[in-house]
Write a structure and sequence with these properties.
With 104 residues, the chain is mostly helical. Helices cover 69% and strands 0% of the residues.
Length: 104
């Protein structure tokens, strides 16, 4: 299987990996006793870039597994969204739908 660079789930998962590792880095910096009260932004950005690189390496090495993980996360997230969207659509005014050729 070739790596598909147009796959939006790949890019979203790389971004999530970067944000996740940067968040862990910021949390650990804030919990460190000997650290000053300010966070080190250079270290957080570095760890975010590394998180994105590690996620991209995972996509390169095991694309089938990463695709299944991304699709399962997407399915679990979107399973709760259509209920809200369906309620909003049904509460809107009735929509007339014309089937067949257009009548000009």
């Amino acid at each position: 299987m070739d790596l598909d660079l147009t796959n939006i789930s790949m890019w979203v998962s790389i971004l999530i990996g970067a944000i996740l590792l940067a968040g862990i880095s910021a949390f650990l910096q804030s919990q460190h006793e000997d650290a000053p009260s300010e966070l080190n932004p250079k270290g957080i950005v570095r760890d975010g870039i590394l998180g994105g690189i590690f996620t991209a390496m995972a996509w390169t090495l095991v694309p089938e597994s990463m695709q299944s993980i991304a699709s399962s996360v997407t399915t679990s997230v979107t399973s709760s969204v259509p209920v809200t969207v369906a309620k909003a659509v049904t509460s809107a005014a009735d929509v007339d739908l014309q089937v067949g050729p257009a009548s000009f």
